[in-house]
């Protein structure tokens, strides 16, 4: 059953209020064009917001940018900010803003930054771009499992595995709940005093509670079930058996399909695998740093220990709807994807890998 978000009340459009999606405009291609109102969201963030210690020059620049976020900023204005951290934050923002305005769209900027290299670009800015873009990708999708899976594209997850059940939860939210019991600064004080705190429970997204998730306002406090059963046969490379496909993996596959089509204009089909034992394996893409390294080692026939294999959360098979969209030497061959957690149980998905590393026949502008 597909669980749908309420319609007719802009719930879909405002699902993640912090994304700034409602402050953006679409061009003829369907990509998002930056606006002054969108840039003002960055100025309101803690990294750039004024504080009591802000010097007069910082206050002057902040006010000028609030009034005209796209205005040119001279190096002398940045150099005049007395606090070094504030000066660096404004410099990073202005550089990022200039790249965004020059690209003309969030999607164009996102692609351009990763193609050129993201050295000097704060990861936060990249995540904010991805959040708005994936909201654009899913703007007409009623599937709430896809919405929750899409959070994985711009927010790191913490993975827990208990009795074979694999759950993905928002890293920042779960760590905050563990630290404060969900009581914020009061919770921290209680923890420091070793006072008892009420137990805070998070919910696994299901058909029964999806309505609550739809109204959660982007609080990122629902878990996504990625459960599968897995066996590994290292003598034959890699074998992954999935006895049941939970909606979390299927939803993530649908999101990634739409992500690829939105950016690259090519239709692909992504499915969780029952088994990979392909002597004709030609191409793979890791969806995170860990999976990339693992798939590379397996492809090259290097030994992989069982502890590392156990951190593999899922495999997927990606197939192009039109083989002519692929490079001639691999046309018609599947592309294998991997999803893997770190030794600390964290998952930091890199959706840009699918945009940069697929075997396309021609580069996308």
Task: Draw up the topology in text.
Layout: E1 25-26, E2 32-33, H1 36-43, H2 56-67, H3 75-79, H4 84-103, H5 106-116, H6 123-137, H7 144-150, E3 157-162, E4 165-170, H8 171-180, H9 184-192, E5 203-204, H10 210-214, E6 222-225, H11 247-264, E7 268-272, E8 283-286, H12 289-299, H13 306-309, E9 312-320, E10 335-340, E11 346-347, H14 352-356
Low-confidence stretches: 4-13, 182-197, 229-237, 239-245
Provide the β-strand percentage band: 5-15%
Mean pLDDT: 87
Q: Tell me the series of helices and strands, N- to C-terminal.
A: EEHHHHHHHEEHHEHEHEEHHEEEH
Total DSSP helices:
14
Query: Helix/strand/pairing class, anyone?
Result: alpha+beta
Largest sheet: number of strands, sense, barrel closure: 5 strands, mixed
Q: State the separation between the terminal residues, measured CA to CA.
A: 38 Å
Instruction: Report helical residue fraction.
Output: 25-40%
What count of domains describes the coordinates?
2
How would you summarize what this structure contains?
With 365 residues, the chain is an alpha+beta fold. It has 14 helices and 11 strands. A 5-stranded mixed beta sheet has the order 5-6-4-3-11.
């Amino acid at each position: 059953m597909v669980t749908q978000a309420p319609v007719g009340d802009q719930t879909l459009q405002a699902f993640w209020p912090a994304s700034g999606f409602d402050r953006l405009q679409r061009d003829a291609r369907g990509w998002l064009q930056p606006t002054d109102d969108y840039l003002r969201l960055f100025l309101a963030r803690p990294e750039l917001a004024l504080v009591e210690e802000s010097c007069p020059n910082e206050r002057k620049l902040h006010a000028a940018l609030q009034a005209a976020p796209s205005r040119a900023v001279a190096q002398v204005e940045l150099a005049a900010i007395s606090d070094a951290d504030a000066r660096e934050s404004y410099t990073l923002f202005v550089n990022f803003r200039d790249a965004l305005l020059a690209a003309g769209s969030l999607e164009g900027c996102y692609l351009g930054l990763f193609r050129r290299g993201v050295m000097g670009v704060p990861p936060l800015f990249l995540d904010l771009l991805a959040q708005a873009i994936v909201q654009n990708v899913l703007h007409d999708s009623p599937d709430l499992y896809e919405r929750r899976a899409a959070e994985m594209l711009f927010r790191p997850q913490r993975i827990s595995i208990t009795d074979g059940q694999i759950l993905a939860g928002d890293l920042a939210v779960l760590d905050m709940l563990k630290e404060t019991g969900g009581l914020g600064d009061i919770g921290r004080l209680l923890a420091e005093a070793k006072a008892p705190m009420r137990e805070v429970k998070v919910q696994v997204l299901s058909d029964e509670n999806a309505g609550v998730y739809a109204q959660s306002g982007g609080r990122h406090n629902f878990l996504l079930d990625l459960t599968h059963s897995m066996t590994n046969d290292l003598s034959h490379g890699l074998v992954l058996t999935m006895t049941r496909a939970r909606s979390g993996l299927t939803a993530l596959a649908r999101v990634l399909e739409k992500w690829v089509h939105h950016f690259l204009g090519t239709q692909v089909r992504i499915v969780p695998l029952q088994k990979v034992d392909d002597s004709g394996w030609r191409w793979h893409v890791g969806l995170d740093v860990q999976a990339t390294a693992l798939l590379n080692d397996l492809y090259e026939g290097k030994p992989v220990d069982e502890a590392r294999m156990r951190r593999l959360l899922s495999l997927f098979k990606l197939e192009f709807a039109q083989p002519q969209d692929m490079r001639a030497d691999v046309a018609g061959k599947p592309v294998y994807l991997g999803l893997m957690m770190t030794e600390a149980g964290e998952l930091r998905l890199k959706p840009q890998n699918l945009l940069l590393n697929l075997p396309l026949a021609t580069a996308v502008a």
